[in-house]
Amino acid sequence: MELLQMLKELEDELTAAKKVGKVLWGLDLDECFMLLNKIRASLPESVRRADRVTRESDRIVNDARGEAQTTVEKAREEVNTLKEQVRVQAEQALEQARVQQLHMVEDSEICRLAKAQAQEIIQGAEESARKIRQGADDYSYDVLSNIEAMVAKVMTTIQNGKTKIERHREPVG
To answer: What distance in Å separates the CA atoms of residue 26 and residue 38, rounded to the nearest whole number?
Structure first.
């Protein structure tokens, strides 16, 4: 709430002036503090309530940001784990293809067939790796979409709260 913040800033300035013994245009600083306290006491309850609602709203947004950040970090970790698994599986499949190729009989026809089979295995392994990577990307996209929806919901709740407060606010001044 800006009014309460301005009163706090004025009080801080007067306190600083009092500490260094500044004289402000002949003002009685104790009288100024007493007037500030009277102004605060005469503020309508709705102003104080709005200030509490604003602080609570800020806390909720900060909590939501923290949760969203945690969720994003977890999603990144899961994606990295999946990518590492894909890499390892692809390397294993390629290594298996190389081993099979080395053990093929040297006969020209068998060798040709073996090379063709090795190529098919390699292509199969690459296709399998591509599908696994695609699955990891799809999962990451879904997780990030869910996070986006949660953050949008929190922002809508905050906006609705602010709108409700504005409808019930009493004009100050």
So the answer is: 21
Quick one: 16 exposed, middle or buried, by C-beta within 10 A (0-12, 13-18, 19+)? exposed
pTM of the complete model beyond 0.85 = no
- pLDDT tens-digit readout, 76-104: 888 888 888 888 898 998 898 888 777 66
Question: What does the DSSP 8-state code read for residue 75?
Answer: H
- What residue segments make up the domains of the chain, in order of their start? 44-168
Q: Collect contacts of 85-89 with beta carbons under 8 A, ≥24 apart.
A: 85/132, 86/129, 86/132, 86/133, 86/136, 89/128, 89/129, 89/132
User: What's the token pair of residue 46?
Assistant: 């709705």
